[in-house]
Amino acid sequence: MYRFLLSRQWVILTLIALVLIPTMVELGFWQFHRHEKRVAQNALIAGNLRAEPVPVTALTSPGHTVPRADYWRRVTATGTFDTAHEVVVRRRTSASDKVGVHVLTPLLLKDGRAVLVNRGWIPAAPNQMAFPEVPPAPRGEVTVTGRLKADETTSASGIKDLRGLPPRQIMLISSGQQAKALGRQVLGGYIEQTSPEPAAETPELIPEPDHDSIGAHMAYAVQWWLFAAGVPVGWVILVRREKRDREEAAAAPRAPQAPEPAPSAP
């Protein structure tokens, strides 16, 4: 009755179905894990943004790698801006997706150490070899509040650390590299400034990271699992249809054959 399943066509179709089912299940779990990761990251960001600010020296030190648990923690630092060693970080976008640079200014602390402060976004110079016009940093002692971020790396950001750039222009924010340029100890990571707000419209402060949307990963996971469940259902439907068609073809009466013409007389 089901001997047709041993035909070459049906063996190939069955093997394809057997491969598709676990593949789709695995793709569903891949999207589900991405959903879980996004939810956990949103909770981490929201919790760290709600926390009371703490002195930056309580969370990091020279050579320290900021752990993910401390990303976006609100911190404060008091000191004076060292504009002589100010640099810009190339190929950064504003909140409206305009390409420009970030202004990175060392803040010299009272103990002689420094912490890097990302003061925000400004347009790049018309000539990429030139240093852009940077709004001046506040003079005198200032207390900066912001979000703690880890040093940037190519593996984490996907940005190549290009060499041979014009003076005072960099691709990645690295406390280790800036410590060599400053000739003093620099706290690991950097501060993404949120206050004080600039007197002018620029630098444009970096907005909070999105921690409300969870994306469509869960919906994609459910879709893949539904596809996986649909494969055996579709296979059964095709088998039953093939069986019915074969039974109908076998039960159909054969058309009578036309009689052979009589041979003609010589």
What this model shows, in words?
- Belongs to the SURF1 family.
- InterPro entries: Surf1/Shy1, Surf1/Surf4.
- It comes from Streptomyces purpureus.
- Its main location: membrane.
- Keywords: Cell membrane, Membrane, Transmembrane, Transmembrane helix.
- The structure is a single chain.
- By secondary structure, this protein is an alpha/beta fold.
- It has a domain at 56-195.
- 34% of the residues lie in helices and 22% in strands.
- It is built from four helices and eight strands, in the order H-E-E-E-E-E-E-H-E-H-E-H.
- The chain has helices at 8-50, 154-157, 175-182, 217-251, and strands at residues 54-55, 74-81, 87-93, 99-109, 114-123, 142-149, 169-170, 186-195.
- Strands 2-4-5-8-6 form a five-stranded mixed beta barrel.
- A hairpin with a 4-residue loop joins strand 4 (99-109) and strand 5 (114-123).
- The mean pLDDT is 91.
**Largest sheet at a glance?**
5 strands, mixed, barrel
Compressed to H and E, one letter per element, the order equals HEEEEEEHEHEH
Percent range for β-strand residues: 15-25%
| Contiguous helical run count | 4
Count of DSSP E strands? 8
Dominant shape: elongated
Overall mean pLDDT:
91
Any low-confidence stretches, pLDDT <50, length ≥5? none
Distance between the termini: 53 Å
Structural class based on helices, strands and sheet pairing: alpha/beta
Helix content: 25-40%
**Global Rg:** 33 Å
Subcellular location: Cell membrane; Membrane
Pfam family, one: SURF1
Organism: Streptomyces purpureus
Keywords: Cell membrane, Membrane, Transmembrane, Transmembrane helix
